[in-house]
Design brief:
Blueprint (H helix, E strand, L loop, with lengths): L15 H7 L21 E2 L2 E6 L2 E6 L3 E3 L2 E4 L5 E5 L2 E8 H22 L5 H14 L1 H4 L5 E9 L4 E7 L5 E4 L2 E4 L3 H11 L6 H18 L15 E6 L2 E4 L2 H15 L2
Antiparallel strand pairs: 1-4, 1-7, 2-3, 2-11, 3-12, 4-5, 6-7, 7-8, 8-9, 9-10, 12-13
Length: about 260
């Protein structure tokens, strides 16, 4: 495909979604009408959480995707790196969610190349908000995507996190956020144990504990599976950037949680 050329008054600028629309490749085009009586069993991602701690944020998500009453996928990656200092966690319709994340990653890279500088952390949250809003026609047909966005603000030198609704409304949270089918249980655990002076290790433990309790109470949320060596995705974002917690580390933490739960 030839490189598109735009006149000065028609230039889409640093917006990748708008560029795609101009060349007839709208990433958020309506999927068409679904059969209301025989709706599709679309795989759905379930529980994700994020909490602030003294030096940044910790994000976590289970690995299970469900389709109706069936487990559609056991290894889904629901927490991904958006760029060096930010991450996205998704719950909702798995297919549109993964496409949205890929487009968001490309948008951040596209903006940096066009403008010659990175977006601010709040600017990134605004970009994601627009993408969620653009997905509203699909959301009205059942393909809802509800992400969490978090990162380390290099200007303020602190972690920040946002949650969204299906209309694209974005809301900055000061302490923690949970989304997905197990969010009530995960959020309750965090609410009870959260404190403003949490350290990195304690914050990781709290995220792990919240996902453990969510999996215990919500059938759509997958817990740690030692037989298959499947553990939630947990990532830390601080002044050093996005760092995923190793599965061996998570295994040790969950063994401790299991021992405490069996007392």
């Amino acid at each position: 495909m030839a490189m598109p050329i735009f006149s000065p008054g028609n230039d889409p600028g640093s917006s990748l979604p708008e560029l795609l629309r101009r060349i007839g490749m709208d990433p958020f085009a309506s999927p068409g009408t679904l059969d209301a009586d025989h709706g599709l069993d679309i795989p759905h991602a379930t529980t994700c959480v994020a909490i602030k701690y003294s030096d940044g944020v910790v994000m976590g998500g289970d690995r299970r995707a469900t389709s109706g009453n069936l487990i559609a996928h056991r290894f889904m990656e629901k927490v991904v790196e958006a760029d060096r200092y930010s991450g996205v966690a998704i719950a909702g319709a798995a297919g549109p969610a993964m496409e949205m994340i890929k487009l968001f990653q490309l948008q951040l890279e596209h903006y940096e190349k066009v403008e010659g500088q990175c977006l601010s952390l709040e600017g990134k949250a605004n970009q994601l908000s627009g993408m969620v809003r653009s997905n509203l026609p699909a959301a009205m047909q059942g393909m809802v995507v509800v992400p969490i966005f978090a990162g380390y603000d290099q200007l303020r030198r602190t972690g920040r996190l946002w949650t969204f609704d299906v209309t694209g409304g974005r809301y900055e949270e000061r302490e923690y956020v949970a989304t997905g089918s197990g969010s009530l249980h995960a959020g309750t655990v965090i609410k009870v144990q959260f404190s403003t002076d949490l350290g990195r290790d304690d914050a990781i433990n709290l995220v792990c504990r919240s996902l453990w309790e969510a999996a215990d109470a919500d059938s759509a949320t997958g817990g740690p599976d030692t037989l298959r060596a499947i553990y939630p995705v947990v990532a830390v974002i601080d002044s050093l950037g996005y760092q995923r917690v190793d599965d061996l580390d998570l295994k040790a933490r969950y063994e401790t949680i299991a021992a405490q739960s069996n007392r």
